[in-house]
């Protein structure tokens, strides 16, 4: 077994074991388990990404049995990039949660435990194991299991928000379970049609099928389930209360990482499994893809407009997630376009991945910064926080950097994503993508300015509101402040890695 | 043999200089942001060291680039198939030189101006980020690199316009952001489109080859892309009707206004237009597409409209703002006349307008800071109370009108001469009319400054007041420059000489 194969197993197994271990430890000791696990995952991820960047897909056949008999874990370019982003965002959020335990949850009786909520670490580490499993699973059933693990632990994490979050958590539970059931149905159908569960083998078989109807149905079911889980408009109602109501250290995980697992599976199905459509006919896949792109456009508009109407920071940031989900499905009409060639598909995929992963980094940073304001002042109402930027320049700077990425201004990862998606849209003759991107950009600039601007404004000199809002928390640990700042810097810094990431992404693509 | 290696080494060092200059300003920003408020001296040291170093580096680059024709260049992969390119050509040095020198002076001025006011670390941090963006803009070797720094400039100036934090400042900043982000998006779409058809168009004297081919193959598309690019750049360049943000942005502190008007923002806009017309499309292609004359008409109208609006203002800074709308369009006017002398006149006005306008803003800031004078009617008799400031203002105003021997005279002379030789001799009429308007709104202020004091306020002390050195010395220096570049316009490496060299490249 090579080093990278060991790492493949470890990044899933380690957090799972750590999750179980933290259950039996006293609450104060749990965070050390979390931090240690984060460091080890970072190490393992680095090994895997370095190996994939050399140009070869890394594969580990569990217990030595290769598919079709056994089950494989497989890291290609797509998986490696998602894995790496999850490692970065996950470990920085871990650092934050360990440094500021009060951000990890509220008891049902409204009490904030000083050593952190005892449920946070087992749930989060379990969630991390599920995320990594989804990204490196070579097999559809394992993907389902991973996604289920992510969904259930995420519901638990939402519930850490205390009594007020229980309704949101319950609603989220229904969505997560319904989504998973649809996914399971689709996977079962694929198994029945192709006789395989391994993604690559399913893909080989579907491209040779005479009648693509059942495959399309399966992909349709899976897509519907995943659209529920990513909160694609009009299936988005559950997201804002769940993400905005969650504790400070949880919201970034939910918005940044959890919905990315569903997106990852969506990309896998559409780009790997769905057979190519023939020329000159309008296929079911094309209709479906256009429907999804229309939903994405609606998401950008509705999410953006809703964000503009928010008076509180956390719901505003959550609405922004609803909007940004729209960007990630815009590539589908290009994928089903028979005229689109490999280079165009590569660009569209690269752009979408950059937009989604930039969102992971930037949104996590934004949620952490906003959550810190809520920790300090006990409120996230924009009007109450007017001018607090004076006392917290680092937090406002982090928000600004994250906003750059979410708007998609250069230099940031989001800019790369918009650029690549726009250029491949133009190359494939899909000019509408440019219009949607422009509208989305303007809206996101408007609502993010609404979030960041007032924090910088001084209250009027003669105003009675000149006094700062009451501080609940005197001092925020430096380590906790550094997490959102590092995420913000990462948003901008990754904007220089475009060529490298595009190269990584070509490893193991189906064209 | 030994000499060869030394030359090679020197060449390698020089080729890194554009990147070094960008990083230098970035490092200054990174150092300044975390500094505590009270470390004023350290902050000033970092600021001034970086600014002086940059001026020296640019001076060192002038002989190899302008005299020997070297083109130091650094490039790094950015997107698949697209590089970020920083290259020093004469036009780049011209703009970078202007910004470096004026930045040094503005920094001195700002340190004096903001003494003891809050948020200085934030202010100077973003100030340095603005320099970074401007240096990047000037050295950009292709449109994508230009776009990256152009957007960085937008983002970095927003906190400066909003600096005071008053509702009015915030409103102006929001308006500024609305205008410039929309403009930036138009440029982005244009660049995406152009890149799809013609690849990452490198700036080249006479235009990029791939763009020439595109214009020949599908002139409609090329025209549309041109309109998107220039329309987007026109926002920062304050071309009518995209100029609305500029007078509003007057609420910013005086050094910021100086920066917006003379060095960074509007200059980035016109500099971009010069690049697109001369180095992306090439003057011949632009003319063949039939977009040059409409642009000339827009520029002419903006010149007259800006002057007319300036005439109507009663607030000093607002009058200066509309005057900028008018004066900056001289650059566009010059390069769209399709004539070498006029092009040189337009390009040299990049620098001339900068030094003249910054003088005026420095002085307006001084009047406001020292005596609280904002309105034009209150300037009566200031010549006796603040003689140095008033003298500097007078020189700047004479420059704007175009009286000899100031820098403005050189610009207008070049432009006028070019207009007569060009296919559009009527432009001379625009120039004359504009100069008359310039005189109509600047001369009354100058006359008021030196007029005897009003009689009424007798009880108050009307004697000479102290003019703070950090504020008045930069103003005097730029006023001195205004005279110097006018008197010594034909000395080697004088702005006019370099501009003529650039113009020769355009028509090669």
From TrEMBL, chain A:
Record keywords, A-Z: Cell membrane, Lyase, Membrane, Transmembrane, Transmembrane helix
UniProt subcellular location: Cell membrane; Membrane
GO biological process: ATP synthesis coupled electron transport
Molecular-function GO term, any one: lyase activity
GO CC annotation: plasma membrane
InterPro entries on file: CPA3_Na-H_Antiporter_D, NADH_UbQ_OxRdtase, ND/Mrp_TM
NADH:quinone oxidoreductase/Mrp antiporter transmembrane domain sequence ranges: 137-443
Transmembrane segments: 32-57, 78-99, 172-193, 213-232, 253-275, 287-308, 315-336, 348-373, 394-416, 428-449, 479-501
Recorded family membership: Belongs to the CPA3 antiporters (TC 2.A.63) subunit D family.
Name of protein: Formate hydrogenlyase subunit 3/multisubunit Na+/H+ antiporter MnhD subunit
Organism the protein comes from: Nesterenkonia xinjiangensis
TrEMBL record, chain B:
Membrane-crossing residue ranges in chain numbering: 12-33, 45-66, 91-111, 123-140, 146-163, 175-196, 216-239, 251-274, 286-308, 358-376, 388-406, 426-450, 471-491
GO cellular component, as recorded: endomembrane system; membrane
Membrane topology: Multi-pass membrane protein
Subcellular localization: Endomembrane system; Membrane
Keyword Protein biosynthesis: no
Alphabetically ordered keywords of this record: Membrane, Transmembrane, Transmembrane helix
Source organism: Nesterenkonia xinjiangensis
Residue ranges of domain NADH:quinone oxidoreductase/Mrp antiporter transmembrane in the record: 140-437
Protein name as catalogued: Multicomponent Na+:H+ antiporter subunit D
Lineage of origin: Bacteria, Bacillati, Actinomycetota, Actinomycetes, Micrococcales
Span of domain NADH-Ubiquinone oxidoreductase (complex I) chain 5 N-terminal: 82-124
